């Protein structure tokens, strides 16, 4: 029976009311007294030398308060990369400075080199046009292969366009080479993981307020992780003491990775607010979002799969070029490496894995983690090459996968790519998929489609990912410059209701509903008496934020630890109240009792006593009932799943329609199945978008061609089917107290290869000799594949 | 600057605007009704969808002066008289038809426009009607389900599992 | 957006007068012009809104059987009017999205003559007459290339007169991002004559595919199109479709229009 509250209940979201009534409070909804507006002057060329920036005319425009140029930030720090990745030869990666405003050179279309602060937004915009910049255009570095071989550098000072040349695991390279050399069969596939623009519906917005009397700052900003933003600004960029800077991320309209990072606009509005001693605000236009939000994916990969004569996998070997764009964004160096290479064993008991990643600077917007971050790239390469191998060998692709799965009795399993998968049951998930997707009925459905003149294809995929990032001790050895624990403060108020201050940020994930379900279950209280506080560094203890499907596994676990401390202290207070010792006190369903007696006190009475400690043994028990816990897991979590997609292809036009999409996932334990399903739906839409619709295109001069919704295809309602999702296979994670794994990215990870496998299958059913089409599978690409 | 007067959510309001002031700017900045959002600059995302004289329009693609004398309704005017969620809003909540909430006001306004002219739309009609409203979070599944439910129709065909 | 003076005349003559000032521009539903102005690609000093001119709105049947649609009539009003013939109804129902259709007008669409807009295909295919404040222009003379028409400065499309074909069809293959036509084919069959107009495909804007018309005049069946091909030299090439693919789509959409005509 599904529960109607607490862990496992499909509790309706409490945050919905304000969004549905129009009372959400997003950054751009905030209006401060005496505020001013910032507008940026941005490069129209991809690569150029800034000869002069003449701001005199702009400064004379009506309403202009002040103007900034790159010169104003020469002496402050750069926005850093969060992970140090070393090349195979041991050399550290190249880290060119990423300034607040471009100085000396502009390096991508949209690179900001000046900013105007004015009384109104229109005045700022009018004045920004009057900034006379003399920028000498240089040839753009766009294509990754040419970038690596050429001598035109994005950053002259590093003398190369290669950030690093990474091998994983370098010691396994030779064995992998040998396995491939000696294999019975080797399947090779070259593919492109298309560049995407995250496109959270709320454009970025930052508002800075400076109080000169106290010399303190408040930054309202669209961030997935306000503490991380504060840390970056304080420790690296502007040097504002952390205790003088409050970062508030109020309601945030989606992130998908793009709002993890600290951006120069945040530093600019802070510096400007201090200079003019007035609030300064900036909201991106969608055009600015396209040009400046960190993009996602953009890999070019060659993958080889070696098999023995019995079709057992022997080795995966991958060579990848990954685009990081013009500057290193905060997670840009870890995404194509640790978050990608370590997953290259997939769900398979394969003895050899070797991954080489060359990361490349180009004159394009920075590229960083986007929903899935590295795992979609890994899954896509693996699951496409496996399908191709099945085709070449005449095997059923589902059976080939099953044959090579790590079996449920093999866990914990250390893969050839170095991860320790704690638990899983891939066959069970595949069983659920086969059932829900009615794979047996496919032949009949194909006939029906053929009768309508359509080609029908079936694509299957299995995926695994690593979530709950991460164990700080492990990531530290892998190059992380931060820890990735999370924190929660559980404050039981005197009247018994509870505030929980959490480091995770909710921007669609429903934390305000799901986290109280946990607290309510553990404390035996009504979930409606539990309130979640997030998104404000002055209110919450600390937190690394929300990304990588980590909120529940890491921050949720911190909440559990905090609640455990509350219970422990509550027992002491209860023991005092019931004149016993705390080792004799039990706690269950909101009641403290003395073991073996009928003496009880309620949780509420204990809370009240904590704040009215008239007769406390004050040397033994502090007043108050508030505990903070930091939680740092021992391992990643490993959600896994199997997806099926059926498509119809119009042979006349190449148009693909998704006829059905089924997802079976193992997310371990589930707190709120309604929210989980919603997360899967959203991930699937983004993955299907990547497969069929979305592609970020720069031309050879570095102009962004897909620069608006007129040219960048966002998935619309009619592009997608209703989804069938299943999460009934639940192998609880053994590494966190909740047994949860994370569900936010799964859909985006598992779906792209599923769709491409289906389209290739459809074309092959009509005897087209097609083994691969690069994403997005636009009608023209599919039509061209059918017509050579 | 020119004066503009209109009825917004039943209340007569007026203000002084430039020719170039968009209706959405007037609503957000002058009337402080910030439930109507701006998500793009090419008239596609629908986060700013409102009703003008009973018709669904994008408030970012209309000048405030064009709405002089018009009846405007925004998300803030959709609740029941007692402030509770109306049928469509409640269906969005019941069926988890929103996540980050940014596109949601536009979605609700689009859905209500549809149900006025087509009280029992099919799944396909709902999907096609939402062409001008982009959501990045939900994959539309639960939005479609919510609109079906709001129209009093069976939602079991929109399977969850 | 640059600022401008906003005028909203109530009569055509007032609008014509208002448009006489320097850099004045007419504003229909604004669904194209406003986004363009946001990008600061257009900077009229005066914007003359036509939406308050009631004599430019509405649909009526003329004595000769043709249909007149006021230049200020929205796509939504065209789509749901009972006198509108099949192809035109399909076309109006599928322009942009529901909100765009409530604002965008037929006059605005024709005057702008976007190479991917839908209405020019209908007007050219049926041989519509564009009625302005000063004259009548046949569709064959009206469209003069991408974003170019026979309209003079300050001339307003008051109405459009559509002869009613015995059968018609509009087949639109959408550009998936913008939802404009990647290729749109409007076919009208007048019994003795078939006219095929293509939008979205050509660098020159909307055009008539004369070979297809000739073949269909011989034999009105989709088989007549089978062996035709259309030169891709002047087709549009962009990130969504190459010239060759667009040329291919013209043929496929034309075949479908024949099969679908009603």
Can you characterise this structure?
The complex is a heterotrimer of chains A (788), B (161) and C (262). Chain A has 20 helices and 28 strands. Chain A has 788 residues and is an alpha+beta fold. In chain B, 65% of the residues are buried. Chain B has 2 domains: 75 residues, Ubiquitin-like (UB roll), CATH 3.10.20.30; 64 residues, DNA polymerase, domain 1 (Orthogonal Bundle), CATH 1.10.150.120. Chain B has a 5-stranded mixed beta sheet, with helices on both faces. Chain B is α+β, with helices and mostly antiparallel strands and 161 residues long. The N and C termini of chain C lie far apart (44 Å). Classes of the chains: A alpha+beta (788), B alpha+beta (161), C alpha+beta (262). At the A-B interface, α1, α18 and β28 of A face α2, α3, α4 and α5 of B.
Annotate the secondary structure layout.
The complex is a heterotrimer of chains A (788), B (161) and C (262).
Chain A (H helix, E strand, L loop, with lengths): L15 H5 L15 E7 L5 E7 L1 H4 L4 E6 L35 E2 L5 E7 L2 H8 L3 E6 L6 H6 L12 E7 L4 H9 L3 E9 L11 E7 L4 E6 L4 H12 L7 E4 L15 H13 L3 E4 L2 H7 L6 E9 L5 E13 L12 H4 L10 E10 L13 H19 L3 H8 L8 E2 L5 E2 L4 H11 L5 H10 L3 E10 L7 H6 L8 E7 L5 E5 L8 H13 L6 E4 L17 H27 L7 E4 L2 E4 L5 E3 H9 L14 E6 L8 E10 L6 E11 L6 H21 L29 E4 L19 H20 L13 H8 L2
Parallel strand pairs in A: 1-12, 10-11, 14-15, 20-21, 27-28
Antiparallel strand pairs in A: 1-5, 2-4, 2-6, 3-5, 7-15, 8-13, 9-10, 9-12, 13-14, 16-17, 18-26, 19-20, 19-25, 22-23, 23-24, 26-27
Helix pairs in contact in A: 10-19, 15-16, 16-17, 18-19
Chain B lengths: L1 E7 L2 E7 L5 H8 L18 E4 L2 E4 L12 E3 L13 H8 L9 H14 L5 H7 L11 H10 L11
Parallel strand pairs in B: 1-5
Antiparallel strand pairs in B: 1-2, 3-4, 3-5
Helix pairs in contact in B: 2-5
Chain C lengths: L4 E3 L4 H7 L5 E4 L5 H6 L7 E4 L9 E3 L5 E4 L4 H5 L6 H8 L4 H6 L2 H7 L6 H8 L2 E4 L3 E3 H4 L14 E6 L4 E8 L6 E9 L4 E6 L7 E2 L1 H9 L24 H18 L2
């Amino acid at each position: 029976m599904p529960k109607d509250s607490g862990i496992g209940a499909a509790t309706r979201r409490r945050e919905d009311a304000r969004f549905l009534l129009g009372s959400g409070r997003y950054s751009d909804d905030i209006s401060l007294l005496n505020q001013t507006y910032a507008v940026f002057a941005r490069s129209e060329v991809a690569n150029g030398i800034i000869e002069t920036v003449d701001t005199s005319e702009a400064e004379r425009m009506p309403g202009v308060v002040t103007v900034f140029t790159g010169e104003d930030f020469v002496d402050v720090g750069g926005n850093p990369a969060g992970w140090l990745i070393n090349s195979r030869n041991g050399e550290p990666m190249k880290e060119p400075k990423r300034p607040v405003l471009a100085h000396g050179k502009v390096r991508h279309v949209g690179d900001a080199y000046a900013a105007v602060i004015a009384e109104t937004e229109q005045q700022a915009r009018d004045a920004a046009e009057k900034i006379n910049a003399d920028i000498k255009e240089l040839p753009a570095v766009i294509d990754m292969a040419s970038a690596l071989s050429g001598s035109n550098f994005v950053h002259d000072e590093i003398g190369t366009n290669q950030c690093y040349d990474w091998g994983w695991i370098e010691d396994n390279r030779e064995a992998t080479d040998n396995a491939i050399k000696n294999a019975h069969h080797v399947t090779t596939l070259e593919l492109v993981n298309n560049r995407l623009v995250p496109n959270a519906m709320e454009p970025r917005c930052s508002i800075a307020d400076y109080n000169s009397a106290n010399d303190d700052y408040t930054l309202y900003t669209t961030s997935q992780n306000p503490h991380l933003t504060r840390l970056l600004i304080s420790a690296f960029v502007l040097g504002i003491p952390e205790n003088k800077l409050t970062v508030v991320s109020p309601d945030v309209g989606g992130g998908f990775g793009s709002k993890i990072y600290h951006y120069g606009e945040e530093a600019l509005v802070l510096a400007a607010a201090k200079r003019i001693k007035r609030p300064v605000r900036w909201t991106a236009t969608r055009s600015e979002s396209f040009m400046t939000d960190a993009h996602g994916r953009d890999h070019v990969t060659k993958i080889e799969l070696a098999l023995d004569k019995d079709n057992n996998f022997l080795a995966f070997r991958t060579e990848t070029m990954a685009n990081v764009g013009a500057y290193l964004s905060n997670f840009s160096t870890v995404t194509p490496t640790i978050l990608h290479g370590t997953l290259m064993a997939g769900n398979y008991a394969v003895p050899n894995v070797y991954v080489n990643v060359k990361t490349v600077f180009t004159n394009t917007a920075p590229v960083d983690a986007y929903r899935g971050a590295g795992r979609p790239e890994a899954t896509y390469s693996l699951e496409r090459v496996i399908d191709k191998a099945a085709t070449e060998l005449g095997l059923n692709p589902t059976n080939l996968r099953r044959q090579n799965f790590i079996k449920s009795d093999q866990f914990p399993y250390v893969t050839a790519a170095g991860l320790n998968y704690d638990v899983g049951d891939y066959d069970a998930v595949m069983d659920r998929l086969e059932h829900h997707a009615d794979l047996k009925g496919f032949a009949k459905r194909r006939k029906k489609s053929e009768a309508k003149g359509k080609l029908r294809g079936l694509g299957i995929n299995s995926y695994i990912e690593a979530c709950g990032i991460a164990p700080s001790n492990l990531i530290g050895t892998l190059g992380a410059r931060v820890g990735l624990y999370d924190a929660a403060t559980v404050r039981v108020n005197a009247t018994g209701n509870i505030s929980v201050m959490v480091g995770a940020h909710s921007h669609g994930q429903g934390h305000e509903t799901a986290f109280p379900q946990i607290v309510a279950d553990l404390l035996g209280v009504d979930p409606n008496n539990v309130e979640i506080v997030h998104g404000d560094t002055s209110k919450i203890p600390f937190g690394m934020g929300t990304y990588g499907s980590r909120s529940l596994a890491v921050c949720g676990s911190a909440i559990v630890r905090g609640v455990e401390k509350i219970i422990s202290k509550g027992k002491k207070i209860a023991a005092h109240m019931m004149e016993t010792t705390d080792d004799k006190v039990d706690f269950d369903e909101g009641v403290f009792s003395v073991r073996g007696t009928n003496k009880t006190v309620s949780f509420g009475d204990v809370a009240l006593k904590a704040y009215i400690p008239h007769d406390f043994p004050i040397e033994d028990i502090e007043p108050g009932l508030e505990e903070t816990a930091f939680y740092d897991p021992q391992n990643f979590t490993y959600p896994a799943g199997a997806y099926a997609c059926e498509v119809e292809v119009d042979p006349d036009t190449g148009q693909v329609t998704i006829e059905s999409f089924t997802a079976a996932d193992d997310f371990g334990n589930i707190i709120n199945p309604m929210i989980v399903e919603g997360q899967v739906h959203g991930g699937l839409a983004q993955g299907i978008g990547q497969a069929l619709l979305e592609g970020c295109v720069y031309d050879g001069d570095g102009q962004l061609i897909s620069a608006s919704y007129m040219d960048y295809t966002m998935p619309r309602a009619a592009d997608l089917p209703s989804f069938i999702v299943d999460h009934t296979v639940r192998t609880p994670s053994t590494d966190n107290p909740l047994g949860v794994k994370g569900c936010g990215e799964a859909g985006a990870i598992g779906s792209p290869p599923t769709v491409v496998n289906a389209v290739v299958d459809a074309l092959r059913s009509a005897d087209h000799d097609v083994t691969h089409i690069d994403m997005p599978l636009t009608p023209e690409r599919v039509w061209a594949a059918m017509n050579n | 600057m020119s004066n503009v007067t209109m009825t917004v959510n039943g209340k007569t309001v007026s203000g002084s605007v430039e020719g170039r002031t968009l209706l959405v700017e007037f609503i957000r900045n002058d009337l402080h009704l910030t439930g109507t959002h701006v998500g793009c600059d090419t008239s596609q995302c629908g986060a700013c969808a409102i009703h003008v004289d009973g018709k669904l329009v994008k408030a970012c693609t209309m000048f405030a002066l064009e709405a002089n004398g018009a009846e405007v309704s925004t998300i803030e005017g959709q609740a029941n008289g007692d402030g509770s969620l109306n049928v469509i809003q409640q269906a969005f909540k019941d069926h988890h038809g929103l996540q980050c909430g940014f596109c949601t006001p536009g979605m609700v306004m689009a859905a209500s426009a549809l149900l006025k002219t087509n009280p029992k739309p099919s799944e396909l009609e709902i999907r096609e009607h939402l062409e001008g409203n982009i959501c990045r979070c939900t994959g539309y599944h639960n939005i479609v389900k919510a609109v079906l439910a709001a129209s009093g129709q069976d939602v079991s065909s929109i399977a969850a599992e | 957006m640059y600022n401008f003076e906003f005028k909203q005349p109530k009569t055509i003559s007032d609008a014509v007068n208002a448009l006489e000032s320097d850099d004045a521009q007419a504003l229909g539903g604004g669904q194209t012009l406003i986004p363009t102005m946001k990008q600061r690609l257009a900077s009229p000093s005066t914007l003359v809104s036509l939406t308050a001119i009631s004599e430019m709105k509405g649909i009526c049947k003329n004595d000769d059987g043709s249909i007149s649609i006021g230049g200020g009539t929205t796509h939504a009003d065209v789509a749901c009017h009972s006198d509108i013939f099949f192809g035109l109804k399909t076309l109006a129902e599928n322009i942009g999205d529901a909100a765009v259709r409530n604002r965008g007008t037929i006059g605005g669409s024709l005057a702008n003559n976007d190479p991917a807009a839908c209405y020019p295909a209908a007007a050219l295919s049926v041989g519509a007459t564009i009625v302005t404040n000063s004259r009548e222009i046949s569709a064959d003379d009206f469209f003069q290339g991408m974003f170019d028409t026979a309209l003079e400065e300050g001339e307003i499309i008051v109405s459009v007169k559509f002869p009613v074909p015995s059968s018609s069809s509009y087949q639109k293959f959408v550009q998936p991002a913008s939802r404009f036509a990647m290729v749109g084919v409007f076919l009208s069959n007048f019994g003795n004559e078939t006219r095929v107009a293509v939008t979205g495909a050509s660098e020159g804007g909307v055009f008539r595919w004369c070979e297809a018309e000739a073949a269909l005049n011989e034999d009105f069946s989709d088989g007549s199109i089978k062996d035709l091909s259309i030169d891709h030299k002047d087709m549009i090439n962009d990130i969504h479709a190459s010239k060759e693919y667009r040329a291919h789509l013209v043929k496929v959409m034309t075949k479908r229009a024949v099969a679908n005509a009603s």
